[in-house]
Model the fold of this input.
Amino acid sequence: MLQRLERFSLAALSRLDAWCNRWYGARLNPLYQSGTIVVGLYLVLLVTGLYLLLFYRVAAPWESVARLTADAWVGRTIRGVHRYATGAAVVFTLVHAIRMFAQARSWGARAMAWLSGVVLLVLLVGCAWTGYVMVWDVFGERLAREAARMADSLPFLSEPVSRTFTGERPVPTFFFFVTLFAHVAVPLGMGVVFWLHVRRLQRPRLLPPRPLLWSVVGLLIAAAVSLPVALAPEADPFVRHARIQADLLIAPWLPPAPRLSGGALLGVLAAGCVLLFVVPLLTRRRGARQPMPSVVDEDVCTGCTQCSIDCPYGAIEMVARTDGRPTPVARVDPALCVSCGICAGSCAPMSIGPPGRTGRDQLAAVGSLLDSSRLPPSGVVVVGCTYSAGAFATLLEREGAAFHGVDCAGNLHTSVVERLIRGGIPGVLVIACHTRDCRHREGSRWLVERVFHERDAELQARVPRSRVRVIHAGARESARAIAALRRFIVDLTLIGRVVRLDDDLDDMAECEAAEVNEVPQ
Amino acid sequence: MSLRRHAAGLVVALAATAAMAAISQAPVPSGEGTTGTLRLAWRARPERIERCVERDASEVAALPAHMRQTVICDGFAASYRLEVRVDNELVVSDRVMPGGLRRDRPLYVFREIDVAPGIATVDITFTRIEESDTTESGRDLLREAVPPDLRWTADRSFAPGQVRLITYDPQRRALVEITGRSTGASANLPRIPRRGGPP
Ligand code: HEM
Ligand code: SF4
Ligand code: SF4
Done:
């Protein structure tokens, strides 16, 4: 059931991604950057929150916020930015979580990131909750009452918390002091949980590209100025309002809440959290569907360390050998490995990778492709990530290309490209996901560096780059990929390369004869 | 990327921001405030009910010196029945137990009852359930406890959204109404809570 939901959300997300790519370009697509945008918003909240803190008075909460709001330029705008940044943080956190879920990044070695993410979401909403209570307008008072109602349903409180808000006596200043304390302490706690959240990742990207970050800040300021936040009437225990200005991003459950008892409301919210917490159990792949972790052929490993540098999940450690050779050897921690196969693409001697997906396995697969099929009619083999190009492989084949899928563009070993060209294929088009949309974080990035910037294991200089092209496309961007394929075919024709065994190939053959062949066949 | 796409992107971003801002302060039905509310809230010390037995001289003599007491009392905190009638209709009939697992804490009452707008006759009784033969005059402790029978009855008008609070005043040892002055929609009520006696 949940996996069907995964597929459904992925389809919806891919469509939205494609639209956003058209509007903003893949680099600034906010959907790709949802996690980093939340970090940016967290910083905005810290800065604006510090300013608001200067004016807040626990002894007169509503009055102090009213005074601040009366300052139409600075006070109200900063309050607005603080408020809208909270809403935006909730929205982008949900987008980020849905993305992780849809891309099946919620289980296995990623379970810790998922669980800490749920804690971050709960803390974010909890922090917003306390923030609204601090204002002590009708919405804040309502949130406080609902929290008290839920607390009172627990069997271990001898005095009902709800009595604090009955009007028997004024709400004590101490209550606002504790709320303020929580509002400041929770974000600090979020910092610690966030560290746990990304601890496992190598080179985590924490902030979005600057133009995107400043655009988000600009939009928040524009919203705060043009749609100023209102200050609702002060909370009054003797008045209930039939309509209130509620933040439905924080408390979507508020309108129907009075129909539920405190215990039922608590139960619904707790069940939601529990469901999120058990997602890693429900979505994990078992048996044959469980991808195998990477393994190292220690005899072949030269100890170059490239795989441990490239692994996006820090799953590879270099350890001392036990066979007396002086170099270290790579060792994979299966508990951290997500089976992305990026290490396979990084290893020149092809000694590492998930079973069936090492450089050697890939060479064997294209070898049989070359043996079995004739030259594709267009002369181009498309090597594509199954997550993106895999979705429109038949369309590419209809254009006359042969399609060869890989689990991640970063898994592709560059000698596969060389093997194809040497095998008589005039052009190889690699279709990778957009750099910030790589499911394995860094696959697309490393691929480009290996093909064009001599990152190990680089595409050998002897392979003419005019015959190799790398493009990025999402699953819903077939038109873009087909246009690129057509252009590539035309370019290959123009430069007279769509001829079998042309001069380049002769040159390559000579070159190879003179060199030690680095690519095991 | 064409200028048209940039413009479309800007429009989408502005619309999404405006939608987010609107949702974050949307006027929504609160699910309450369409009726009046009768709120009962108080904390009180329950009466301690003691059952004492007197030992005769021979029993006392048989005990070790440090345990020689002629009267042995065993006690517990009383529970109460709270009944609320609005226009003679019984809307609440609850047993109120003392707080704490061992019933050794004060008792707490917190109930909110919806009352249709208009004038209503409210009748609240709070009556001890267990029998007690301890007389009030005899014991200081009893003076701090809630009396065995409390009653508050009155005709009151209820506006939509208006809350009327009935509480227990330990000084007067009676149920009292507290009213508050409100801002905005119900500025007809005084703001600083003040205590009023039973009508
Ligand atoms: C305050 C809220 C959150 C922030 C600031 C945040 C931020 C981030 C960042 C910056 C990354 C690293 C991205 C990268 O370098 O590739 C990340 C990864 C991740 N996040 Fe979040 N996140 C938040 C909430 C969540 C939630 C609610 C979930 C899911 C319930 C979640 C699930 C994940 C997962 C599974 C990864 C790991 C991705 C991978 O290993 O490939 N996060 N998050
Ligand atoms: S990249 Fe290959 S050779 Fe280099 S350390 Fe890793 S496994 Fe060994
Ligand atoms: S497959 Fe390789 S690169 Fe990917 S997580 Fe496992 S060890 Fe790291």
Notes: The radius of gyration of chain A is 28 Å. Residues A 293-294, 311, 313, 315-316, 332, 337-343, 354 surround iron/sulfur cluster (ligand 3) (CB under 6 Å). Residues 74-102 of chain A form the longest helix (29 residues). The longest strand of chain A covers residues 380-385.
